[in-house]
Amino acid sequence: MTVRRVTVPGLMAMKREGRKIVAVTAYDFTFARLLDQAGVDLLLVGDSLGMVVQGHETTLPVTLDEMIYHTRAVARGTARALVVCDLPFGSYHEGPESAMASSVRALKESGCHAVKLEGGEAMAATVRFLVERGVPVIGHVGLTPQSVHAFGGFRVQGRDEAAARRITADAESLAEAGAGAVVLEGIPAPLATTISARLPIPTIGIGAGPGCDGQVLVLYDLLGLYEGVKPRFVKEFMPGGAQVRQAVGDYAAAVREGTFPGAEHSFNS
Ligand code: KIV
């Protein structure tokens, strides 16, 4: 049976029809296949891999080569989900041409279907440049992790009126520039609800409350595997860390006791 791939225009249709967009981050083939089979609409190969896969304190050290490597693995694991490659810090900041060069590499070398970049009004001209040249772009405003040092930490954004107005203008400028959707991260829920109602394009929230057109979570947070700082907006849908420790502990005990491997796991000739 041929499975129809979720597309960026398809996300728009989901908003029109009031169907929530389900997005999760993914970084490798095996998880991508499981998430695709579970019916996730959008797999974001986030530069959060710098923290949850590579163990850095921020997303800043991640390179475009690393993003392409992980996205290629994720894309191979999917049949239905839209695969989005995050453009890492420094790979699109010099201007539209540098963003185009990075996007061309991402699309040609990784098999992704769209790119994501952080920033609002300051990035609108870049988004327009990419979209006019056939690159589907997802925007990202609010608590944009690549600006962590400018924010002085991972802090909720848009709490006062001026900041809320700025974030609204950021999201609107991305929609006007042709972005296919925008991630709203780490902003008050009422602000995200207002922005979602004003924008003609879907919003995908993380730490932005229930009023967005979709939600995204970092896979290792959702599975309870990441044991770094746990923001309030994270819900662990399974105690993955405890389960992995238990399973590996059981394996270690079986090896030490000599009960694994058994005859059924061995070749006799
Ligand atoms: O890098 C990432 O995983 C992200 C999501 C948290 C939206 O940008």
How does this model look, in words?
This protein has 269 residues and is α/β, with parallel strands linked by helices. It has two domains: 8-238, Alpha-Beta Barrel (TIM Barrel), CATH 3.20.20.60; 240-269, no CATH class. It is 43% helix and 13% strand. The chain contains eleven helices and eight strands. It has helices spanning 8-17, 29-37, 49-52, 64-76, 96-110, 121-132, 148-151, 161-177, 189-198, 219-222, 240-257; strands at 21-25, 42-45, 82-86, 114-116, 137-142, 181-185, 203-206, 214-217. Strands 1-2-3-4-5-6-7-8 form an eight-stranded parallel barrel, surrounded by seven helices. Strand 4, helix 6 and strand 5 (137-142) form a beta-alpha-beta unit. Helix 2 (29-37) packs across helix 4, helix 5 (96-110) packs across helix 6 and helix 6 (121-132) runs parallel beside helix 8. The longest helix is centred in the C-terminal third of the chain and has 18 residues, at 240-257. The mean pLDDT is 97. 3-methyl-2-oxobutanoic acid binds next to strand 6.
